[in-house]
Automatic annotation (TrEMBL):
Location in the cell: Cytoplasm
Biological role: Increases the formation of ribosomal termination complexes and stimulates activities of RF-1 and RF-2. It binds guanine nucleotides and has strong preference for UGA stop codons. It may interact directly with the ribosome. The stimulation of RF-1 and RF-2 is significantly reduced by GTP and GDP, but not by GMP.
Organism, as annotated: Williamsia marianensis
Protein name: Peptide chain release factor 3
SUPFAM superfamilies assigned to the protein according to its UniProt record, in alphabetical order: EF-G C-terminal domain-like (SSF54980), P-loop containing nucleoside triphosphate hydrolases (SSF52540), Translation proteins (SSF50447)
């Protein structure tokens, strides 16, 4: 039972730079799964609800998605296009979509088995895509590449392919080649069958674009030079060895590529097909003691995100867990590995956008939100049956450091409580040292957006106005007790203890770091796990 559920599941995230079309693609995928009758119902502006809390106001004002959620849908592949005849369950875990960056974004990627790298045909690789790509590479997750917006003028297919190979060392192996240049998207050459898939536009791209499967001779007659160009360029790629290779894809060395238009719903079915046929189903996970919890073993899950105060109508704390093994049934009492305490899962929910629905059963690969999960923190393990504890999610190297103060001394107690709460949720990293004392801790973040989240939550949930004062440090290095005194004597360096006990030396810039490393070779200054390691 569990094995069959696992085999039909695929859990992935879309990594992209803002505006590349992630929301539009999410809608298009949901449309294909017929979850919504017309594209635009999930994220579309018209679909936005008007009753939103301050929190949501902030999200709306910046056009960002602070919440990280998972969309689950069923999809059955067309039998004619593959040998698979099974209703597949697709979990799309949403990565926060703002231009800035936070630890949440990284953590989400620990919950997926594959990533779809979505790039804009005119812009190619952009900074946020690159950062997220590095995290995927670090984790060894297979990546499918989507070149989106092919309905608009952009670069040539070969330019985009070269850019990806040259800049990030990932070799694209297009599954389909576009027929018609960017801006004149006629259809796709299926490189594996040699056939032509012709798309027909629908009004406003609101419904699935009808596809016509055409034999090569007829394609030539119909598209003439556009067809010949596609065939020639595709052959060129084959000569260079850029055909799909499942092993290389799973090893993260090559990336099946699809040209698409999310607004027109072109290439979207092809993405679903690639996910189902090529992306890996959930697999077991290695525990701290190096044993592997297999997917068919007793229930276990990892919390990868904790979130609170999202919405005034649901003011509570939600922990999102990704199921690693076994069957989850709502109401079962599981054990929280970190404390050994029982945890009742009466309020398990599937959450997407503003909507929540109760989850009754779930399987490996699925994401379930647990309500009022006050004791749970990112990286925690929940299990039933034989005990298991998975390794913690690495805390990523912070690059932004600020002193945080309560504006009013009278609110100090709430301020402390809030800091502890936000720390335990992993919203920011909290640093302390004896010199500064405890009154105004130093907060460390991967992206400055995390400080805004702190400000907003301090105000709405704890009624505390805060101010931030940036510190002139750019780097953090892990150090040890023996090095602390000497480091504190250095200019541009300050040592702190992070709440997980790690000693961190903050350094003003990389030149200072290089200087200290040269002059004091005996000091411990280890790089932290950075996303790009
Ligand atoms: P994001 O979540 O990655 O930030 O991007 P989003 O889907 O919001 O898309 C950003 C803009 O790009 C939107 O335009 C969207 O309509 C457009 N877009 C997305 N996919 C495609 C595509 O395949 N082709 C074309 N031509 N455009 C695409 P907007 O002007 O910001 O909003 P709207 O007025 O269209 O809603």
């Amino acid at each position: 039972m569990v094995a069959r559920e696992v085999a039909r599941r695929r859990t992935f995230a879309i990594i992209s730079h803002p505006d590349a079309g992630k929301s539009t693609m999410t809608e298009a995928l949901a449309l294909h799964a017929r979850m919504i009758s017309e594209a635009g119902a999930i994220h579309g502006k018209a679909g936005r609800r008007s009753t939103v809390s301050d929190w949501m106001e902030m999200e709306k004002a910046r056009g960002i998605s602070v919440s990280s959620t998972a969309l689950q849908f069923n999809y059955r592949l067309d039998k004619t296009s593959s040998g698979v005849d099974e209703v597949n369950v697709i979990n799309l875990v949403d990565t926060p979509g703002h231009a800035d960056f936070s630890e949440d974004t990284y953590r989400v990627l620990t919950a997926v088995d594959a990533a779809v790298m979505l790039i804009d045909a005119a812009k190619g690789l952009e900074p946020q895509t690159l950062k997220l790509f590095q995290v995927c590479r670090h984790r060894g997750i297979p990546i499918i590449t989507i070149v989106n917006k092919w309905d608009r003028p952009g670069r040539t297919p070969l330019e985009l392919i070269d850019e990806i190979s040259d800049r990030i060392g990932l070799t694209p192996t297009p599954l389909y080649f576009p027929v018609g240049i960017a801006g004149d998207f006629r259809g796709l050459l299926d490189r594996r069958t040699g056939k032509y898939i012709h798309f027909t536009r629908t009004a406003g791209g609101a419904t699935i674009a009808p596809e016509e499967l055409i034999e090569p001779e007829d394609a030539l007659a119909r598209e003439e030079d556009d067809w010949t160009t596609a065939v020639e360029e595709s052959e060129l790629l084959s000569e260079m060895g850029q055909d799909h290779d499942q092993e290389m894809f799973l090893a993260g060395q090559t990336s099946p590529m699809i040209f698409a238009s999310a607004v027109l719903n072109f290439g979207v079915r092809q993405l679903l097909q690639a996910l189902i046929e090529l992306a890996p189903p959930p697999t077991g996970r290695e525990a701290i003691d190096h044993t592997v919890r297999e997917v068919t073993d007793a229930f276990s899950a990892v919390v990868f995100k904790v979130q609170a105060g999202m919405d005034s109508s649901h003011r509570d704390r939600l922990a999102y867990m990704r199921i690693v093994s076994g069957e989850f049934e709502r109401g079962m009492v599981v054990t929280h590995a970190q404390t050994g305490k029982p945890f009742a899962t009466k309020y398990a929910q599937a959450v997407f956008g503003r909507d929540r629905s109760t989850v009754d059963t779930a399987y490996p690969g699925d994401v379930v939100g647990l309500v009022n999960a006050m004791a749970l923190a990112p990286g925690d393990t929940l299990y039933s049956g034989p005990k298991v504890q998975f390794p913690p999610i690495p805390s990523f190297a912070p690059e932004h450091f600020s002193v945080c103060r309560a504006e009013s001394a009278g609110k100090y107690k709430q301020f402390r409580k809030a800091i502890d709460q936000l720390d335990s949720e992993g919203v920011v990293q909290v640093l302390r040292n004896d010199i500064r004392g405890d009154a105004s801790p130093v907060l460390a973040a991967v992206g400055p957006m995390q400080f805004e989240v702190v400000t907003a939550r301090m105000k709405t949930e704890f009624g505390v106005e805060t101010s931030f004062q940036g510190l002139p440090y750019q780097l953090a290095r892990r150090t040890d007790a023996e090095s602390v005194d000497e480091l504190n004597r250095q200019r541009g360096v300050e040592v702190f203890t992070r709440s997980d006990g790690a000693l961190l030396a903050l350094v003003s810039d990389k030149w200072r770091l290089q200087y200290i490393e040269k002059e004091h070779g005996d000091l411990t200054l280890e790089p932290l796990v950075a996303a790009a390691d």
